[in-house]
Amino acid sequence: MGMTGTYIAIENFLLSQIIKGEKSILEIDPTQCCPLDVDKSWRAIHYLLCKDIENGKPPMGYVVPIRDDNELDCELEFGAFYITEQQVKEAADFLNSLDNNVLENMYDFKAMQENAVYPLLGKENEMDAGFLYEYIYSYLIKLKEYFNQTAEKGYAIILYFS
Q1: Exposed/middle/buried for 55, CB within 10 Å: 0-12, 13-18, 19+?
Q2: What is the DSSP string of the chain?
Q3: Nearest in space to 160 (alpha carbons), one of 83, 90, 100, 102
């Protein structure tokens, strides 16, 4: 099975209400918020961009915002994180600066293995390196488009896990 990540785009006013505790994240219907499922790629994407398991520095740390500063106090079992409208724009600009060559140069399968980066299970070998990169890259392309569309709308993003 495994823990999957889902992004939803929301209006800033709604995010503000959730952060202040005036509204529960459980009151949101994710299907109404342009959801993007990134499967189990979220931790590997964060590691690729930030070279760390969590708390990556901005703007790369906003792409998968598993940062203490961006954590929501909520009732979800596996947690949720947010980024503001401005942080969405910064992340979109960062993603737009990356191409396949840059990403391939950033990719370090061995370091990901050594750091047990999810979704790696510790049984992978060098033959799996290409498959993992293609898996990560396919979701990065989707995230790039998603962040661009969300930035154009002036929306914030919540990432939650299930």
Answers
A1: middle
A2: ----EEEEEE-HHHHHHHHHTSS-GGGS-GGGS--EE-TT-HHHHHHHHHSSSS-PPTTGGGTS---GGGB---S-TT-EEEE-HHHHHHHHHHHHT--HHHHHHH--HHHHHHTT-TT--S---GGGHHHHHHHHHHHHHHHHHHHHHHHHHT-EEEEEE-
A3: 83
Is the previous residue joined to 119 through a cis bond, with omega within 30 degrees of 0?
yes
Burial class from Cβ neighbours inside 10 Å (0-12, 13-18, 19+) for residue 83 reads buried
- For residue range 98-151, what is the model confidence (pLDDT) as tens digits? 999 999 999 999 999 999 898 888 778 877 899 999 999 999 999 999 999 999
Contact between 37 and 4 (Cβ < 8 Å): yes
Q: Return the residue matching tokens 């370090």.
A: 108
- The model's pTM is 0.93
Residue with tokens 């993992």: 132
